[in-house]
Every structure is written in C-alpha cells, then in structure tokens.
C-alpha cells in the first residue's frame, strides 16, 4: 500500500495537492504550492473510525499530518471534500483498506474533542458549551481578533479597509439600523467582549447593557469599559440572555448568538426579546445561516466537536418566519457573506503573525484547531456554503405604528 496514493485517492484524483508520506511515497503534482505530509501511520488509523474530513482533522490537530503552505489554499484545492465529505460507500471502502493499520496504530479521540453533558440547550449545558469555545484565553483572542476584540463578521467599507475599520463600520451599521440616539437603552445579548456595548455608549450616548455566558468575556469587557471611562453608560454582565432584565428596552442587538440557540428554542428566544422591547423598539439579529434548507441538520462533525458544541445553523427564511411569528415586523435584511470571508482572512493572518505566542498560550493542538476552523470557515463563505445575514425587525405598536421613515433607518 502506497500511503501517499491512498491519501490522494481520499482527497480526489484531480485535486492539485502534493502528498508526501512517511513510507517515502509521493502523489500529486510536484508543481503544487501546497502539500500534505502524512507523518505517521496513526494518521491513517484516524481515517478508519472517521473517514473523510473529521479523520483528517483529528490527524492534523494531533500533529500526525502537517501542511506545507497556507491551510486555506490546501482546503481551497480540496474544496469538494472539505465542503461535502466522502459518501457512505467511499467511507466503507476506505475503512476496509485501512483496517490492518487501525489494529496496529489506533489512537484515542484527541482530548480537545468535546461534547457538553446535560439536556440540550438547558442553561447549564449552554454555559458549558459557550465556555468551551470562548473561555480559552483573553490574550489568545486579543492576538487573533485585534484591538476591537470583535468576534463576529465585520463590514468592509472597501476591500482595502483594515479589520479595525471594518469592525467599527459593523458596529455603526448596527447602530444606524437600530436608530440609536442619546438617552436610549440598548440590550446586547451574547455581547462577547462588549464591542457593540461600548460603541453604542461612546458614539451615541446610549445606556447599554451586554450579557454573555462567558465569564472571561464579561470580566475583560467590564475592565475595558472602566478603562475607557464609560462606566456611567455601559455595563457587561456574566448572564444568560434568558435572565436579562425584562424592563422595556428601546433596542436589542443580537450579534452572533442565534447560532448557539438551537432550532427548537428559536420561538422562545425571539419571543423573550420581543417582551423586553417597548412598542416601536427594534431588534437587529446578525448571525451565520445556511444558504438553503439543509438536507441534514447536523453541524459538520469537526465544528460540532472541536469548535462550536451544540451549534446549529438555519436558513434565513426560517429565521425571518420565526421572528415574524414572535411579534416582529421585518423591515430589512441583507447578506454579508463576502464580508465574513474577508474578516476570517484577517483573523487567520493575525493568528499566523502571533503563532509562536498563541501556541505557548493555549497549546499547539488548540492553536491548530483555530487555524483549521477559521480557514475552513473562510472557504465556506467564499463558496456560498454558509452565509451571514442581518435581519432588522420592529415591535409595532397596538395600532401598527413602526416609527420608521419612508426610507432609511431614522424617523
């Protein structure tokens, strides 16, 4: 068995990737700028129990496979496998061929693979799932995200804008859509490190409250609020959105939270936000979506086990229907898919720039997870396998008044 040829067959015979294996075998075009190096038979054993992308991801995270060149370029070259994975018959054939290797070199599942315990989307399980991803290290996230500490899709005013300019533009776009004005009260659910909260307070004089299930985020954000002198207007609490104050807010922003809610919880989620808004109050929901109704509901196994446990993506049409049924009149919707590809490219570049420090901070396995997942996500947005939508809704008054002008956001 020539290992390189076997791996090349898994990737696809026409994939322009060099494969170099521990047995001295080679496959693929010598001219390719990216290469996959199979360092140990343990990498092949991974493919028996998880043929396709999950097995390859386990081998990469464990250091049993190495990539020469940019991971994004490798994934781009093998896009059909990365986005669609192997068919069931192909999986069975591969497992049979590699069974002797597995018997000699089988390995336990990497420690970084995680499935939170408890009832799906209970408060305790959601807290564990969020902590797994976000309570890694604030310093690590500072290196990856940059000074804005915004871990959601930016909005690029031009293709040459910096990441910081694009994140500021995103926060301002949300503020404009919500019609924020001095004296208003904003609730930002799933607020992350508080970027929207601080923008609303500093740039619009809004009294803003953010809530997050990540203790690390809440502590960092509150310290930054005090450092910027925004304590009179801005606050971030370590709190479940379901436990947020129920008093009437003028506006609510939900930026990157809906992906963690789960399809069966969406009706209650949007209804709870509606209850917290005054008549005429607006909700801006910003989240990753499926580009169409999916044939299967499960998140990609690599993302589900290593990146976003319990995450679930829905098509934007379903989200709009649930928002509408929960008491919101939909006023505007837009797709920012290309902007997220640009955002992820910037995060990938930041990680590479700080690779040595990142590895020292969180370990090489976790750093590899982030390198792989961000490159794969960038490819997904580039190829329209996933999208990013902003949906703006308003809670109309009993007489149907929305407070919107005939055109634009502000009355």
Automatic annotation (TrEMBL):
<dbReference type="InterPro" id="IPR050723">
    <property type="entry name" value="CFA/CMAS"/>
</dbReference>
<keyword id="KW-0808">Transferase</keyword>
<dbReference type="Pfam" id="PF02353">
    <property type="entry name" value="CMAS"/>
</dbReference>
<keyword id="KW-0489">Methyltransferase</keyword>
<dbReference type="GO" id="GO:0032259">
    <property type="term" value="P:methylation"/>
</dbReference>
<protein>
    <submittedName>
        <fullName>Class I SAM-dependent methyltransferase</fullName>
        <ecNumber>2.1.1.-</ecNumber>
    </submittedName>
</protein>
<dbReference type="InterPro" id="IPR029063">
    <property type="entry name" value="SAM-dependent_MTases_sf"/>
</dbReference>
<comment type="similarity">
    <text>Belongs to the CFA/CMAS family.</text>
</comment>
<dbReference type="GO" id="GO:0008168">
    <property type="term" value="F:methyltransferase activity"/>
</dbReference>
<keyword id="KW-0949">S-adenosyl-L-methionine</keyword>
<feature type="domain" description="Polyketide synthase-like methyltransferase">
    <location>
        <begin position="140"/>
        <end position="377"/>
    </location>
</feature>
<keyword id="KW-0443">Lipid metabolism</keyword>
<dbReference type="InterPro" id="IPR020803">
    <property type="entry name" value="MeTfrase_dom"/>
</dbReference>
<dbReference type="InterPro" id="IPR003333">
    <property type="entry name" value="CMAS"/>
</dbReference>
């Amino acid at each position: 068995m020539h290992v390189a040829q076997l791996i090349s067959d898994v990737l696809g015979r026409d994939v322009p990737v060099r494969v170099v294996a521990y047995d001295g075998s080679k496959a693929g075009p010598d001219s390719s700028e990216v290469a996959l190096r199979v360092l140990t038979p343990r990498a092949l054993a991974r493919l028996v129990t998880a043929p396709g992308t999950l097995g390859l991801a386990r081998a990469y995270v464990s250091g049993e496979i190495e990539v020469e060149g940019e991971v994004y370029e490798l994934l781009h070259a093998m896009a059909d496998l990365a986005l669609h994975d192997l068919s069931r018959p192909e999986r069975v054939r591969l497992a049979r061929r590699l069974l002797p290797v597995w018997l000699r070199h089988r390995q336990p599942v990497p420690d970084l693979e995680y499935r939170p315990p408890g009832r799906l989307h209970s408060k305790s399980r959601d807290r564990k799932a969020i902590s797994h991803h976000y309570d890694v290290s604030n310093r690590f996230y500072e290196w990856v995200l940059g000074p804005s500490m915004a871990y959601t899709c930016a909005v690029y005013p031009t293709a040459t804008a910096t990441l910081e300019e694009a994140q500021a533009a995103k926060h301002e776009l949300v503020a404009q859509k919500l019609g924020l004005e001095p004296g208003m009260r904003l609730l930002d659910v799933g607020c992350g490190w508080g970027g929207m909260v601080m923008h609303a307070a500093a740039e619009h004089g809004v009294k803003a409250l953010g809530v997050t299930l990540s203790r690390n985020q809440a502590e960092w954000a509150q310290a930054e609020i005090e450092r910027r002198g925004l304590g009179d207007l801005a606050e971030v609490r370590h709190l479940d959105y379901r436990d947020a104050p129920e008093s009437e807010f003028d506006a609510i922003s939900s930026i990157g939270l809906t992906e963690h809610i789960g399809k069966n919880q969406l009706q209650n989620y949007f209804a709870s936000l509606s209850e917290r808004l005054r008549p005429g109050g607006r909700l801006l929901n910003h989240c990753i979506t499926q580009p169409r109704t999916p044939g299967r509901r499960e998140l990609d196994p690599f993302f589900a086990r290593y990146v976003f446990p319990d995450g679930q993506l829905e098509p934007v049409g379903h989200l709009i229907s649930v928002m509408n049924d929960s008491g919101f009149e939909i006023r505007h919707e837009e797709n920012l898919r290309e902007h997220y590809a640009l955002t992820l490219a910037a995060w990938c570049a930041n990680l590479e720039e700080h690779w040595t420090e990142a590895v020292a901070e969180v370990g090489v396995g976790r750093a590899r997870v982030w390198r792989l997942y961000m490159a794969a996500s960038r490819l997904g947005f580039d190829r329209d396998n996933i999208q990013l939508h902003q949906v703006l809704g308003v809670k109309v008054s009993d007489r149907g008044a929305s407070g919107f002008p005939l055109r634009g956001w502000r009355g």
